[in-house]
Structures are given as structure tokens and as C-alpha cells.
Amino acid sequence: MSLRIKEKSAEQVLNDYLDSIYLQSHSVSSVKSYRTAITGIKNGFRIFLKDKYNCDEVQLAFRIENKEIDIYHILSEYVIFLDKKSIKPKTIRNWLSVVKGYFSFMGIDVFAEKCKQIVKLPKVRRLKKEALTKEILIKLLHNLDTKLQTAVLVAVSSGMRVGEISGLTLADIEFNSDPVKINVRAETSKSGEDRETYISKEASEALQDYLQRFFGWREDSPNKKLQMLRIFGRTNRIRDRDNRLPNPEEQLSEAILLQKALIRKLIKVPELNRLARNGRRVIHFHAFREFFYTQVSNISGSNFAHALMGHHEYLDTYYALSEKQQSSLYKKAESYLIISDYTKIEKSLENIQNKQTDIIEKYDAFERYLRQKDPAFLEFLKRKESLESKCS
Known about the structure:
Low-confidence stretches: 236-241, 248-253
Radius of gyration: 30 Å
Oligomer: single chain
CATH class of the largest domain: Mainly Alpha
Number of strands: 3
CATH architecture of the largest domain: Orthogonal Bundle
Mean pLDDT: 86
Strand content: under 5%
């Protein structure tokens, strides 16, 4: 263990570790998750240490370094501790990874193969997910405000992550492109890479209406003052006493804001606020990405869908395509990503079925009338039935 660790308190060491995590990911949510794994008030690693060894992590590192305690024994006990608290297997794996990284940061070696042999983990049960349907999405959109409606349509038709949507600016959108192109910036992307994706005509129209209503956006204007504003940040067209739009640095764009706003709406509609078998809500932002993947992969191929969603290993293949090929593949799948047209089609089918039922009822009524009023019609029906039986 290095001298710089020995001279610091546990809280100082933890903050240094979290700073290193942020330096790698530039993700506030990742830092929060790592902190929860270490300091969570119910099941954090510090709670476990206090309960079992009455020490903090730096003191424990000293004891491990002096060979008083075996690191793998500690990790095994921590897994058992979490499992007894009914923590989900996937969460246990994630938190164990955080703790191993924390020890490595403090200079305590944790060898992957040895850890795998000694530290046994509970199996992750892969439960069947309940897929979103267009019917569910229609009901959802009917219960959302304009901002969330627009965010959902963008998510469904682009495959963007919620963090990427929350960081979206007007400068990232090419409305003159067909289909409309979104430039996802490396600083908002989970993979840390620039990429491109598209949105449907339906999402584009909703987005333009939203921008016009809340930001004063105009189609025939360069909208220079709006270029760097985060479209789905906490503030939109909220002006101060000087009638001034907020500066970009005054906005909060954490993904959690959109997620919490969606949950608040779902809670009000029990039909939509259902939980899947894994205990998670059926409707959430990642489910919109899954819907996008299903539709696009079925029509334009899984590699293309993965690339638009920002999965690193597929991006090189995507950029080998010409722009015309890229847009053509998206257009092939676009109709399957449109929600409102589905509603219209369903309504048209319903109208056709109603008309068909009406025609059948009128025909039956007319037949009954002829049976009663015209004996010749009965003779015609008998000859018709006789011919049909001979033909069969």
C-alpha cells in the first residue's frame, strides 16, 4: 500500500478513488453507483466492515498488507453478507467489482483468476422481459406532458440512451437531413465516442413543435442563441426578469431528471405502472432502446441497429457504409418506429371492420325480406345450394 494512502483518512481515499472513476467515465451516475456500493447506509461495504471487523477500508487494507487477513476471504464474506440481505445477484456482482477496484486503487492486489476460484457468486437469473408494444406506447404518450412525449418519441426512434437524450442540444440536430440526423457527442455518450443516429419524421415534427413552444425556435431562423441549450434539461423556456433564456451552464441535464419525471407520470396510471417479474417497471427509458433494437434489427439487420445504439464493436462496420446506404437502411425501418401512424392504421381497420359488419347485417336483413315477400327468391336459393353441393 502506497504512502499516499497510509497518510489519508478513509473518506479522503474514497474521494480520490471516485475522482479516478469520474476521470475515466465522466459519468456522475457512475460515481453515485460506486459511492453507494462503498457507503450505502444499509448494505454498503463500510457497513459490512463495521459489523464484521469493526474497522474502515483503509484500516482493513493495512491488515491485509500485514497478512493478518486474506483479501479473498473478505470478499467471500461480503458476498454472503449481501446475499443474506436479499440483494439481487446482478447487484452483488456489480458491487463486488467496485470493491475489488477500490482495493486495487489502494495497492492491494486482487487476482481475477484466483478470485473467480475462491469467491463464489450467486447465479443471475435471466427472467423473460415483457416487451413494449405500440399499444402500450400509445397509452403512455396519451398520459405524458409535451416534454416527456417528445423525449419518448426521440428515444423510441433513435435508440439513444437517456443520458444522451438529456444532454441533447439544438446544435446536435440536423433538421435539413432526410431522415433527420442526430450527432451524439462523445461527452454525452456512454462509450465516449462520437456517433450518428436518426429520428423518425414523427419524432422530428414533435421535436420542432416542442422547440417552438418552449424555446421560441423558428424553422426559418438560424436560432443562434439556442444552439447550445440542452433541450431536455431541467429548464427550458424559463426566463428571468430580464426575459433572458438560461445559459447552458445554468441547466441541469442529469438523466435522472427525465427518469423521475417519467416515473411520476406512471404512478398516476396504474395500468402503465406495472412491474415485470424482475421487479423493474415494464416502462422505462432503456425499454425504449430495446423497442428500437427489435424493430430496426428485424428490418435492417442487428449490426445496423447496434451501431445506431452506440455499441462500439459495430461502429466501424457502420461507417464503412455510404451516407446514402445509412439513411436508406434507417428509412426501411422507420415506419416500424412510428407510433401515431399505427394508431391511424388501427382506426382505419376498425372502421373497415365496422363497415363490413354493417354490410353483412344489411345483406342478412335483405335476404330475410326477400324470403318473406318473393317465393321466386326461395326457389333461386334452392337451385344455388343444389349447384354448390354438386360442385363440391
